[in-house]
Each structure stands twice: as C-alpha cells, then as structure tokens.
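Hi everyone, sorry if this is the wrong subforum. Our group has a chain we'd like a structural model of before ordering constructs, and none of us has done structure prediction before. Sequence below.
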Amino acid sequence: MTAAMKICILFAVSFLRFVSADDTVVEMIDGPVDIVVGNDPDNFDVSWSDGVCYLPIKEARLGDKIVFDRFFGHNVYKMPSFEAMEDCDFREATLLASSPPYEYTISSRDAAKSSSLYFACEVASHCYGKQRFRVDLAADAATA
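Answer:
Right subforum, don't worry. Here is the predicted structure as tokens:
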C-alpha cells in the first residue's frame, strides 16, 4: 500500500453506516443522522480541507445531514454530476456555503434525481487536490 493510499484511508470521511469490505451493510443506525465531513473519531478530525482524500459516504438516507462544521478559506458547492465533480467543472454547480457551519439535508428531491450527491470546494485548485466527495444514497431512499 502506498503512502498516498494510506493517507486516503486515514483521512476518510466517516461512514454513517458500517460497511464491510464487500460493501454489505452490517449495521444500520435508526433515523436520520448527522454526518460530519472529515470527522473520523478513530483517527483525525480534518474537517473540510484541501489535500485530503475523502472516501464516499455510503447508504445515506432521507433526512440525513451532511455537516461541514469548519472550513475557513474554503467553500461548499453541490456538483450536478459525477463527471462535473471529477473534472472540477463548476459551471452548473450550486454554491451552498462560503462560511461555516453549513448543513445539507438529504431530501426526497435529491433521491428522485440521482442515486448519489456530489460536493466540492471551488477555491483555487482545491477540487483538483481532491477536496471533493460523493454521497451514495441508500437503494430505498427514493421510496422512503
């Protein structure tokens, strides 16, 4: 495992559900939860920062909140697609916040549009430095 891979794992966004290596959910948390971006209580709390490799959040449900609690010198954009996030293309992105704190609540509208949500920082080259991540919605999110 390379040092960069270890850093990605070390600074991962906390999962709101416990997921095994084969992506099966092994424990569920009942009701909406707050998912604090960059807060991994087993390692470090890096918040919303550039130079951090954020892993996808899996099994998010309606009512769950994506919490950006500290991010000075950054902003939060909701990206329109995976491609836009990967390409750091902000032309059709929506600015959600330019100062902390900010909470994004997953809605039925989100679930009706897509099975994933995408977030990124537009400041300088932060998006290219991997300050971006995906939130995968639970399969039943659109019907919940």
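For your construct planning: The radius of gyration is 14 Å. Residues 1-22 have pLDDT under 50 and may be disordered.
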